[in-house]
Amino acid sequence: MQELKINSLIADYLQAQQFSEVIKTYHLEPFRVYAQDIRRTFIDKVFAVCDYYIENSPTEHSRHLYDLLMIIDQLGDLESLVPLIAEVRIERRNNPSCHSSDKDLNAILAQIIDENFYRKDYEKITSQLLYDQVAYDDVILTLIRIIESRLFIIDF
Fold first, then answer.
1. Domain count of the chain?
2. Cβ(101)–Cβ(89) below 8 Å
């Protein structure tokens, strides 16, 4: 979790116009919220993609592929995720719907790619929701990148 400072567009405008008294009167000051760290979101989405594959449930889940594409370049050094991935694996073991917590995710991701598991759902649903079109083959390149990073390999 990370703590973020949130401000409304109205408060930003009022501040720019030097109406700080209005901000104070209507309690529009910035406030703090706790949000899941983007690294954790990325890791959870990789596990989710694998869990839905194990459940044979591609429908309405291909959006995670697009999300992974949008997140991966914001992470910096991927190698730094290794300790958090280990923590997430342990935490997910306690959840019965997390089927992939003790599995080699690279092998599952390779199967997803080979079978075009999410293609139909992505092209029918996810791609229709995108402002900027991203082809299925382009989001699959992110899965390949994840596999090549070897972040999710576990030795048995």
1. 2
2. yes
Residues 46 and 41: their CA atoms lie apart, in Å, by 9
Q: Is the pLDDT of residue 155 over 60?
A: no
Domain that holds residue 139: 38-149
Same domain, 64 and 19: no
| In a shared domain, residues 54 and 92 | yes
Model pTM score: 0.82
Q: Give the pLDDT confidence score for residue 6 in this predicted structure.
A: 86
Return the structure tokens found at 95: 């959840």
- Residues 72-80: contacts with CB within 8 Å, 24+ apart? 72/42, 72/142, 72/145, 72/146, 74/38, 75/38, 75/39, 75/42, 78/149, 78/151, 79/149, 79/151
